[in-house]
Amino acid sequence: xxxxxxxxxxxxxxxxxxxxxxHPRIARGIGDDCAILSWERPSELLVTTDMLLEGRxxxxxxxxxxxxxxKALGVNLSDIAAMAGSPLAAFVSVxxxxxxxxxxxxxxxxxxxxxxxRFGVALAGGDTNVWxxxxxxxxxxxxxxxxxxxxxxSGAKPGDRIYVTGPLGGSLAHGRHVRPEPRIVEAQALAxxxxxxxxxxxxxxxxxxxxxxxEESGGLGAVLRREAIPIHPDxxxxxxxxxxxxxxxxxxxxxxDRAAQLPDSVRTFLVGEVVAxxxxxxxxxxxxxxxxxxxxxxxFAR
Length: 302
Ligand code: ADP
Ligand code: MG
Fold this sequence. Notes:
By secondary structure, the chain is an alpha+beta fold.
């Protein structure tokens, strides 16, 4: 039941609807039982979803609802970037804490709106709940795959070079994790020029996410060069750069003969090489190798 004073669920949805921009691919957005997306072009769709929990992925009192809204959309955009796709439509489901439900909802929207506008994302639906628990927000993001097909995790080959698009580490300790910079434009530039053989976004840490590429590519391994790992100014060791996570840079692999086609517009750091057979090593300047332990973020591990 909507509250008579205009502070109820339906009034909030009407307000959200008023914020949502029209989009040529969204025949019907907020306001019916389902959204209707119109798809005249023959193209694959990308669908990704990520949920953020108060106390787990953010602290509402510390970060505020705008940062939470930004992060919720940003991490999903980062997944679309990892496939070199173009984002199209977002569906946002929230469980709002009763005390400040409307203010939190408006803050989430204010945080999301500039990112949505920047990357051409239409807010096409969602679900609104209020409860006595902490804030939870889930975003489903739909995108279109890159011309020439999506870049998968599974295409790496022995001999491919391994790159990352930015310095790593210290994101959580320094609060950068709530301001991810989705590498949509960079991923599309890479896909359109050198075309990476495999790609992933760095959410859990290079030591963990690179392993996904290696495993999905048929049980390969990698040697990372210690002095080549770009350490973020927020971090103080290679270990932090490898394990901290939530950098939301891209990690991709590239056959050496395509390195000359790397686009000038994308900042890249060559960090190592894919090898045959499983394993992940860190090699020092003198050629000594140390096994890289699994150190990235794992929800079941903590
Ligand atoms: P139903 O009860 O049929 O599921 P709702 O009342 O939950 O419908 O939602 C009505 C419309 O508002 C739908 O189009 C839904 O997608 C949209 N909507 C609800 N909550 C949100 C939200 N937080 N953000 C965006 N759209 C929302
Ligand atoms: Mg319905």
